[in-house]
Write a structure and sequence with these properties.
binds coenzyme A
Length: 383
């Protein structure tokens, strides 16, 4: 007997929260230059004795050339640019106040709900996926569920830059299994809280943003697809992981118990960028190609790739590996120049901003990749 066809699930809405403050490469390089000069002067004797390594000065032009990034949004700018601080200023909030993560999530979710023709009361599951979670518990997703007036269940999860695609697959599975009927996936990324603004190899990489999606069983959807943003039927989801230490952040609840105190630079983002580039590109090409084969879609029939936004050259290489030629920005849109790497939010920002022009029947792939390593792809078709 043939296996029953899986229940059809659709993305019925998306939303985006963009912080109001942004930092240009020039501003970032100027603040790091001041910080490096001070650090090297303060440690001049140790540097001369060879016991401390001098820090290298940043270069504004290198940033754009190496990554394609020209600016990034942040939740708070003055603290990041203060050479004596180099992290955002966030007032400590009381238990009665909404957390900063929930606060950025709600406008993105409300926009997604409007597109879906739903309200918070219709939601019966909230999955929050992000590279860094604000606290151990209660889950911020449960705080968001409460603020929305939603029912059902909610949880936080972390698969670094792939947190969006992994949370989308969790939503699709819940909808297919019947354990939820209207799922909000939300990806709040306050990357400025875990980026290393003190080292030139890392200081330019990240930006802050929050994305949200609403997913429902296609048969239940109020959104019939006729609006500008369409309804996007999920043809398949595919996830993969492969262990690597090349992107790592050792911040965690055992830090205080560890016998040897760690270097503070181990407790924020760090990476071997060259190795990541070399190892992840082929992994992602193989992943997307395999996924397209599974859902019986030929690569040239894919109208648009909404790829993770970490590095422009990386995205061109990946799309070239899948298509056999370098794609134009219509085929693989770029938001990296303005937003930098927003971790898990990146591919969803591209999807949110660059899909209204597609026609019914057009096919697309949302794909993320990052620490773990982790890769996730979602093949969608406009209804
Ligand atoms: N200004 C000036 N020089 C810089 C610099 C900066 N901001 N940052 C790095 N450099 C220097 C390096 O120190 C290095 O100097 P060296 O040759 O004397 O050692 C040189 O520039 C080249 O650095 P490298 O790291 O090899 O550059 P790159 O071309 O690989 O680009 C990345 C760096 C990070 C942009 C690139 O490797 C990348 O995007 N990798 C993938 C990242 C990724 O996707 N990560 C996932 C995160 S979720």
């Amino acid at each position: 007997m043939a296996a029953p066809l899986p229940v059809s699930v659709s993305i019925t809405g998306t939303g985006l929260f963009t912080p109001s403050e942004s930092i240009s490469n020039a501003e970032l390089a100027a603040s790091l230059t001041a910080s490096v000069e001070k650090y090297n002067a303060d440690h001049a004797d140790e540097i001369a004795a060879g016991t401390v390594e001098a820090r290298a000065l940043p270069d504004e032009e290198f940033i754009e050339k190496a990554s394609g990034i020209s600016s990034r949004f942040v939740v708070e700018k003055s603290g990041v640019l203060d050479p004596d601080r180099m992290r955002p200023h966030l007032p400590t909030r009381s238990e009665d106040e909404l957390s900063v993560t929930a606060e950025m999530a709600l406008p993105a979710i409300r926009e997604a709900l409007v597109q879906a023709g739903r309200t918070g009361a219709d939601v019966d599951a909230v999955i929050l996926g992000a590279s860094n979670l604000q606290r151990a518990y209660p889950a911020v997703a449960i705080e968001i569920q409460d603020a929305l007036g939603a029912g059902g269940w909610a949880f936080d999860m972390n698969v670094a830059c792939s947190s969006a695609t992994f949370s989308i697959q969790s939503a699709v599975d819940a909808l297919r299994n019947g354990t939820a009927s209207c799922v909000v996936v939300v990806n709040p990324e306050i990357t400025s809280g875990h980026n290393n603004f003190e080292l030139r190899d890392h200081h330019f990489i990240f930006g802050d943003a929050c994305t949200a999606l609403v997913l429902e069983r296609t048969d239940d959807a109020v959104n019939d697809g006729s609006g500008d943003h369409g309804r996007w039927d999920v043809l398949g989801t595919k996830l993969a992981t492969q262990f690597s230490n090349n992107i790592r952040n050792d911040f965690g609840f055992l830090n205080e118990s560890e016998d040897d105190p760690r270097d503070p630079h181990e407790l924020v983002f760090r990476q071997n960028g060259q190795s990541v580039f070399k190892e992840v590109c082929p992994l992602v090409v193989q992943h997307i190609s395999g996924h397209l084969e599974e859902v019986e879609v030929a690569a040239p029939d894919v109208r648009r790739f909404w790829l993770h936004q970490a590095n422009l050259k990386m995205n061109q290489l990946i799309a070239k590996g899948v298509l056999g030629r370098v794609p134009d920005t219509d085929e693989a849109p770029v938001i990296l120049d303005e937003y930098a790497n927003t971790s898990s939010a990146g591919s969803v920002i591209a999807f949110h901003k660059h899909r209204a022009d597609l026609d019914a029947g057009d096919l697309g792939v949302i794909c993320s990749f990052g620490a773990g390593y982790s890769v996730g792809s979602i093949v969608v078709r406009r209804a």
